[in-house]
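Retry 2 of 3 after timeout on previous attempt. Resubmitting structure tokens to design endpoint.
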């Protein structure tokens, strides 16, 4: 499976951050060895080597959405070289998933909300839930006070 960034004529997206964040869900427990392998490719066609999706997380529990934060440094150049050409996620074009198991079992994983972000931003505590919120519904809108 290939997931590509949105292409626009004359404009390449540039991502900033050091972490690939993605939400995952499986109806059955999923061990790291059963998870698909993932690799990245930039606009130039240069790709990273593959890593196991759950390599830095461990087993995925059944029936629970889990956010995986994969450090981009875990994606190494696909072909080691002495040249200065190195894969950079800033120019990310696509994310590839490959299921390499031949065990005769079905392995299904749902993936959502892919982001390239800074790890420090992911580790911040969310703000407290608002208190004293009043919602008044109308035909086409809501007023929040």
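Retry 2 succeeded. Sequence:
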């Amino acid at each position: 499976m290939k997931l590509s960034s949105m292409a626009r004529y004359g404009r390449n997206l540039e991502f900033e951050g050091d972490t690939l964040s993605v939400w995952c869900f499986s109806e059955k427990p999923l061990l790291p060895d059963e998870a698909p392998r993932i690799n990245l490719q930039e606009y130039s066609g240069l790709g990273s080597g593959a890593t196991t999706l759950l390599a830095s997380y461990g087993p995925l529990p059944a029936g629970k959405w889990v956010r995986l934060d994969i450090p981009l440094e875990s994606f190494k150049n696909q072909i080691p070289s002495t040249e200065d050409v190195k894969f950079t996620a800033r120019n990310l074009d696509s994310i590839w998933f490959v299921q390499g198991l031949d065990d005769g079992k079905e392995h299904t994983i749902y993936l959502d909300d892919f982001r390239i972000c800074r790890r420090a931003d992911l580790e911040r505590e969310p703000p407290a839930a608002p208190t004293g919120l009043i919602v008044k519904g109308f035909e086409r809108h809501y007023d929040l006070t």
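Attempt log closed. The chain has one domain: 2-144.
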